[in-house]
Write a structure and sequence with these properties.
There is one protein chain. This protein has 6 helices and 5 strands; from the N terminus they run E-H-H-E-H-H-E-H-H-E-E. The protein has 137 residues and is α/β, with parallel strands linked by helices. The two termini are 19 Å apart. The protein has one domain (4-136): 5'-nuclease (Rossmann fold, 3-Layer(aba) Sandwich), CATH 3.40.50. The chain has a 5-stranded parallel β-sheet with strand order 3-2-1-4-5, with helices on both faces. The longest helix is centred in the N-terminal third of the chain and has 14 residues, at 26-39. Helix 1 (9-17) packs across helix 2 (26-39) and helix 5 (81-94) packs across helix 6.
Length: 137
């Protein structure tokens, strides 16, 4: 059975910008994960929310180029009004950003593992499986 991974915006940015923190090669780890997903014939999920967040930093051509190597395993997932209402409730209840709650809900509802570094999202581990790229090596 294929494993589905919902890749959060921060991981796409780590990969594209080849970001590093003081001690860790975040971009290299993101690339390794993305290549592992392809090699294992698994799926990468994304949403309009991911696209909207990427558009804050990149133009359409750059985003298209970013996704191009992964086009055969990319699956775009939709979002419903019900999911957005749930995200609003959860974000208020535990004081996290709406977008973070919605990413988690989209991953959960699509039976995907949420890949992120966003600390807010780890507060939702009771709802969806959440990992960093290096957790999966």
């Amino acid at each position: 059975m294929k494993t589905k991974y919902y890749i959060d915006t921060c991981i796409w940015r780590d990969y594209f910008e080849n970001r590093k923190d003081r001690f860790r090669p975040l971009g290299e780890w993101a690339l390794f994960l993305l290549n592992m997903i392809i090699d294992d014939n698994n799926s990468i999920l994304y949403s309009n929310l991911v696209l909207d967040e990427l558009r804050k930093e990149y133009n359409e051509e750059t985003i298209s180029n970013l996704f191009e190597p992964y086009k055969n395993c990319l699956i775009k997932v939709g979002m419903s009004r019900q999911q957005m209402l749930e995200a609003t409730r959860r974000s208020r209840l535990i004081n996290i950003p709406f977008a973070d709650a919605l990413h988690a809900i989209l991953a959960r509802d699509n039976s995907a593992i949420l890949i992120t570094r966003d600390k807010h999202l780890f507060e939702l581990q009771n709802m969806v499986e959440i990992r960093t790229p290096e957790d999966l090596f």
